[in-house]
Structure formats: structure tokens, C-alpha cells
Design a protein that fits this description.
Blueprint (H helix, E strand, L loop, with lengths): L2 E5 L2 E3 L5 E8 L8 E6 L6 E6 L6 E3 L7 E6 L4 E6 L8 E7 L2 E2 L3 E5 L2
Parallel strand pairs: 2-11
Antiparallel strand pairs: 1-3, 3-8, 4-5, 4-9, 5-6, 7-8, 9-10, 9-11
């Protein structure tokens, strides 16, 4: 079955960086668009970034453009989210998603 396992979250100061990873298994990774979502306390889950099957096209929410970069390694069945210049409002649980399948999420907290 499809498994998506996120890692790399943690506590970081404003202006800092984190790189999230999502290891995928149970499906042909290179055949699927991959996305990152996030959900902050008391808010709806929102799309952060998506990447095409080959990695040639990426799209971002306006709130993270210029700060976050999504990438993928099809040989490793892994998608990444490089997050720079983090702000307190980036605090959320970050989820990896493909099709209708979600990972368990990883907590990112931006605080001084």
C-alpha cells in the first residue's frame, strides 16, 4: 500500500531554514505529481507546493514563493521541501500528499 513518511521538522528561529523530506513507497513514484500541504492550529489545511512527475515544473502558494523550494529525487522515491527565511506564520504540521494519500505529517515550529 502507499506509504508517505515525512521527516525533518523541528523548532527553528525566525529567519532560519529547514529541509523536509517525504519518503514514498508502494507506488510508482515517478508517475505521480507530489505535493506539500500544511495545517496551522485552528486553520484549514493549505497547499504549499507541488512538483510535476519529472520535477521540471513546480508551483507555490503566494505565501511561500521565493522562500521555499520543492524538489524530488525519483531514484530515491523522495520529495523535499527546502524552507528558507522561515517566519512564525510558517508554523504548522507539514504533510506530503499524492493522489488521495497523505503522510502522517511533521511539525515545524518557528519561534524565538
Amino acid at each position: 500500500q502507499v506509504q508517505l513518511v515525512e521527516s525533518g521538522g523541528g523548532l527553528v528561529q525566525p529567519g532560519g531554514s529547514l529541509r523536509l523530506s517525504c519518503a514514498a513507497s508502494g507506488f510508482t513514484f515517478s508517475s505521480y505529481v507530489m505535493t506539500w500541504y500544511r495545517q496551522a492550529p485552528g486553520k484549514e489545511r493549505e497547499l504549499v507546493a507541488s512538483i510535476s512527475r519529472t520535477g521540471g515544473t513546480a508551483n507555490y502558494a503566494d505565501s511561500v514563493k521565493g522562500r521555499f523550494t520543492i524538489s524530488r529525487d525519483n531514484a530515491k522515491n523522495t520529495v523535499y521541501l527546502q524552507m528558507n527565511s522561515l517566519k512564525p506564520e510558517d508554523t504548522a504540521v507539514y504533510y506530503c500528499k499524492t493522489g488521495s494519500d497523505w503522510g502522517q505529517g511533521t511539525q515545524v515550529t518557528v519561534s524565538s
